[in-house]
UniProtKB/TrEMBL annotation:
<feature type="domain" description="FAD dependent oxidoreductase">
    <location>
        <begin position="109"/>
        <end position="480"/>
    </location>
</feature>
<dbReference type="GO" id="GO:0005739">
    <property type="term" value="C:mitochondrion"/>
</dbReference>
<keyword id="KW-0809">Transit peptide</keyword>
<feature type="region of interest" description="Disordered">
    <location>
        <begin position="732"/>
        <end position="753"/>
    </location>
</feature>
<dbReference type="InterPro" id="IPR000447">
    <property type="entry name" value="G3P_DH_FAD-dep"/>
</dbReference>
<comment type="similarity">
    <text>Belongs to the FAD-dependent glycerol-3-phosphate dehydrogenase family.</text>
</comment>
<feature type="domain" description="Alpha-glycerophosphate oxidase C-terminal">
    <location>
        <begin position="522"/>
        <end position="649"/>
    </location>
</feature>
<keyword id="KW-0560">Oxidoreductase</keyword>
<dbReference type="InterPro" id="IPR031656">
    <property type="entry name" value="DAO_C"/>
</dbReference>
<dbReference type="InterPro" id="IPR006076">
    <property type="entry name" value="FAD-dep_OxRdtase"/>
</dbReference>
<keyword id="KW-0106">Calcium</keyword>
<keyword id="KW-0285">Flavoprotein</keyword>
<dbReference type="InterPro" id="IPR036188">
    <property type="entry name" value="FAD/NAD-bd_sf"/>
</dbReference>
<keyword id="KW-0677">Repeat</keyword>
<dbReference type="GO" id="GO:0046872">
    <property type="term" value="F:metal ion binding"/>
</dbReference>
<keyword id="KW-0479">Metal-binding</keyword>
<keyword id="KW-0274">FAD</keyword>
Length: 753
């Protein structure tokens, strides 16, 4: 009897203890200390580190010059030997023996066409497996889709929701793959990427358990690669974290974590890391045709130097020989496929995604926002980026163009959606749009699938009968996985043999090596990119203390260039002021300095002014007008470095203006001359920007009060707002939908299935 009574007490105690242990374990898993990328000490100590703080300048490896890289491309076709042989015969020498082919004159294992995220990722993967690799790009690295993303490194919460509700295993696999790649992304380039908390505002109480379950499942799928767990915020805490949020109807918020990055700088870093490991990487080199052998298999390509054309010279067309050719040209995939076979069926269905840049005061500096309940059911992001705020995106069928223009309808739609979840007293003005651009997503259809099947948002690797290997589709986050699968396929298709890298380049500039053993297998999940080895969160302090650079400039340089910020600072001109000592700003509004232009020309293959203001220092993406104002300085510095004449400088001015037109620069400013800009005429015209703010000497206090009173009354009339805030001249539009309709693909479209 006593034993029975004892068991009645012991069992509940055991159950309680078990539940407590399980709860404690779950709590530990959720709140356990984690190694956050970028917070650990640098693999390479800063140069000022050591006894007595003696400065030891870093000795970073330097990639081959562009001319040297082009010479290597020509050697792959035996051009050098052929020229030497002809010269020998012309001089009267005899040569009956066939000249020996050197290693430099052997064909490349792989020729990659396209210098976006996919192409440069493939180049880095292949060269670190010991293959002989060449990459050519018609424009600049990241000149297309890869520079016009939402700047997120994410698994995709919307894809996860679709996967669950539609029981779609492909969508589920895409999310799991992207979450794994997200961590690799942050580990290999901690200076260019970081974790970002993103808020989901809740308008109904039932949304709390729904989104809580979704974000927790998102955390669960990330597994050990996750960093921070999602959490719930009460209404007051949500407003404290995001003060601009509309109070009315708000019941709380959920916050989850994803990554953010500087997309085009990441792209350039991939290209330069591949070049330092031995790949031949050349931008502004256009493939004009593909070459086949007697068996109809691809064996090379003809290319021409686009820079020679810019210099007013006739471009020389030459042959590049390779055992295998990879097409990684994004939206232009089908144009390369048709070089191989004119009758091939197109697989790319281009979709335009428009983003706008707003001033930084529209969002907190360290918190993003996602609205899953837009007017048409689509998702819109509202994120801090480079000191400003990025909002987007749309999803509209479009034509393929080199520099597409964001249409006014898309911009208006984004602004209206932004206004829906901000406080009513915050006037979301069209004139606050600092830049706007349209990026083309290369959605693809599997040519082997039936015509009734929808488009896919993951990637596709296919090979033509003649041996053209095409990697298309996908997204930024999964570029590394796409590259790995493509190189695996290329090795099998072209019969290539990988090999360990003997005495690989020490990217860190010291004896410190990557933990990745470059043994001929894929190691890109551990290969750190250029700039990552010496980066730490406190590196900017060392930079300030040695070079006397402004704090905001030093922080920016470390986040954009990593440990190469030392070289950028060394290339910066003295200011001849007490402080800052070095670094003449390109734009007074942003932390970009003159040393960057010199560094990008000497160490990152920048060849045009647009290469610098758009893809290296991102000014064109942050503020189109500020980019216009900085152009004279940028062109002059590049002219010194590249020995441009007056004709080339004038050509750079005109081509840069055309590009800025695609980034949201109003049409009235596209006709400005360099003299107009240097005279300070930008912003002094009777346009929307000038009249956005109250200026001195324009109104008496009585008039100002009267205007404010009238304005307050008129706030209730949307027609007044639309009329008062509209620019005099709208952007030219490449939109293909009727005015007044929603600039987003409908739910029933095959794109969203």
């Amino acid at each position: 009897m006593a034993a029975r009574r004892g068991s009645r007490f012991i069992k509940p105690l055991l159950y309680t203890a078990g539940a407590g242990a399980a709860g404690t374990a779950a709590l530990y898993v959720t709140l356990r200390p984690r190694e956050i990328p970028g917070t650990e000490a640098a693999a390479v100590p800063p140069p000022t580190y050591g006894e007595g703080g003696v400065f030891r300048p870093p000795r970073f490896p330097v990639a081959k010059s562009r001319d040297e890289q082009i010479a290597e491309l020509k050697r792959s076709a035996g051009v050098i030997s052929q020229v030497a042989e002809k010269a020998k015969k012309w001089l009267g020498g005899s040569s009956t023996a066939t000249p020996a082919t050197t290693a430099d004159e052997e064909p490349y294992d792989l020729l990659i066409i396209g210098g976006g995220a996919t192409g440069t990722g493939i180049a880095l993967d292949a060269v670190t497996r010991g293959l002989k690799v060449a990459l050519v790009e018609r424009d600049d690295f990241s000149s297309g889709t890869s520079s016009k993303s939402t700047k997120l490194v994410h698994g995709g919460v919307r894809y996860l929701e679709k996967a669950v509700w539609n029981l779609d295993y492909n969508q589920y696999s895409l999310v799991v793959e992207a979450l794994r790649e997200r961590r690799y992304f942050l580990d290999t380039a901690p200076h260019l990427s970081q974790w970002l908390p993103i808020m989901i505002p809740l308008q109904k109480w039932w949304q709390a358990p729904y989104f809580w379950a979704g974000t927790k499942f998102y955390d669960f799928l990330a597994g050990k690669e996750n960093i921070e767990s999602s959490y719930f915020l009460t209404k007051s805490k949500a407003l404290d974290a995001f003060p601009m949020l509309k109070k009315e109807g708000l019941v709380g918020a959920l916050v989850y974590y994803d990554g953010a990055h500087n997309d085009s700088r990441m792209n350039v870093s991939l290209a330069m890391t591949a070049a330092l490991y031995g790949a031949t990487v050349v931008s502004h080199l256009e493939v004009t045709s593909l070459e086949k052998d007697a068996n109809g298999r691809l064996c090379g390509a003809k290319a021409k130097d686009c820079i020679a054309e810019l210099d007013g010279k006739k471009p020389e067309e030459f042959t590049i020989k390779a055992k295998g050719i990879i097409n990684a040209t994004g939206p232009f995939t089908d144009s390369i496929r048709k070089m191989d076979d004119q009758q091939v069926e197109e697989i790319v269905a281009p979709s335009s995604g428009v983003h706008v840049i707003l001033p930084g005061y529209y969002s907190p500096a360290n918190m993003g926002l996602i609205d899953p309940n837009t007017s048409d059911g689509r998702v819109i992001f509202f994120l801090p980026w480079q000191g400003n705020t990025i909002a987007g995106t749309t999803d509209t069928a479009c034509d393929i163009a080199k520099d597409p223009v964001a249409g006014e309808e898309e911009i208006d739609w984004i602004l209206k959606e932004v206004k829906r979840y901000l406080q009513p007293e915050i006037n979301v003005r069209r004139g606050d749009v600092l830049a706007a651009w349209s990026g083309i997503r290369p959605l693809v259809r599997d040519p082997k699938a039936g015509k009734t099947e929808g488009l896919v948002r993951n990637h596709l690797v296919t090979t033509s009968p003649s041996g053209l290997l095409t990697c298309s589709g996908g997204k930024w986050t999964t570029y590394r996985q796409m590259a790995e699968e493509t190189v695996d396929e290329a090795i099998q298709e072209f019969g290539l043999k990988t090999q360990p890298l003997v005495n690989p380049t020490l990217i860190s500039g010291t004896e410190v090596q990557d933990e990745a053993p470059l043994d001929g297998t894929c190691q890109t999940h551990r290969v750190r990119l250029v700039g990552a080895h010496g980066y730490s969160k406190t590196l900017f302090i060392n930079l300030i203390q040695h070079y006397g650079i402004e704090t905001d400039v030093a922080k920016y340089l470390c986040q954009a260039y990593g440990d190469r910020a030392w070289t950028v600072a060394a290339l910066s001109a003295p200011t001849e002021q007490r402080f800052p000592v070095r670094g003449v700003k390109i734009s007074s509004l942003y932390p970009f300095i003159d040393g960057e232009v010199r560094y990008c020309v000497r160490h990152e293959y920048a060849q045009t002014a647009t290469d610098v203001i758009a893809r290296r220092m991102r000014l064109a993406f942050l503020n189109a007008q500020a980019a216009l104002e900085s152009l004279p300085k940028v062109i002059d510095i590049m002219a010194e470095e590249l020995k441009w004449d007056a004709k080339r400088k004038d050509a750079e001015w005109k081509s840069s203006l055309l590009y800025l037109g695609s980034m949201g620069l109003p049409k009235s400013k596209l006709s400005l001359s360099r003299k107009d800009v240097e005279s300070g005429h930008v912003g002094k015209y009777s346009d929307e920007d000038y009249h956005l703010y109250a200026r001195h000497g324009e109104l008496t206090p009585e008039q100002a009060c009267a205007h404010l009173f009238d304005f307050g009354i008129s706030l209730n009339h949307s027609s007044f707002l639309n009329r008062a805030d509209k620019p005099d001249e709208l952007l030219q539009s490449d939109s293909k939908f009727e005015s007044g309709k929603n600039p987003v693909v409908g739910r029933e479209s095959t794109v969203n299935k």
